[in-house]
C-alpha cells in the first residue's frame, strides 16, 4: 500500500489516521498511521510496537515552510502493522 503524502501536510505534531485493513495476501494489514515532527514521539511508538510484537513502517520527508525564510522541517510517517513483515 502506498500513501500519497505530497498533497497534504499534517497540521499538528501528531495526527493519527485510521485506514481500513488491506487484503491479507498483500502482507500485514495497517492498524493506523500517525504523523510526527518530533523524533522522540516516533521512538516511543517504535518501542511500543516492538513490545507488542507488531510490525511498523517509518518514512521521513522534508516539508518546506510556507514562508521562505525558515529551513525545511523533517516529519515522520509511522504506520503500525498487524504483524511483523516478512523480509
Q: Would you write up a description of this structure?
A:
Residues 1-22 are annotated as: Disordered. There is one protein chain. This protein has one domain (14-81). The chain has one helix and four strands. The protein has one helix at 39-51; strands at residues 14-17, 30-36, 55-63, 73-81. It has a four-stranded antiparallel β-sheet, covered by helices on one side. It is elongated and about 40 Å long. It starts with 13 loop residues before the first strand and ends in a 6-residue tail after the last strand.
Instruction: Give start-end ranges of low-pLDDT stretches.
Output: 1-12
- In total, how many domains does the architecture comprise? 1
Output the number of helix runs: 1
Helix proportion range? 10-25%
Q: What form results from the Cα inertia axes?
A: elongated
Taking strands numbered 1, 2, ... along the chain, how are they ordered across the largest sheet? 1-2-4-3
What sequence of helices (H) and strands (E) makes up the elements? EEHEE
Structural class: alpha+beta
Whole-number average pLDDT? 78
Radius of gyration: 14 Å
| Beta-strand residue percentage | 25-35%
Number of extended strands = 4
Terminal CA distance reads: 16 Å
| Major β-sheet annotation | 4 strands, antiparallel
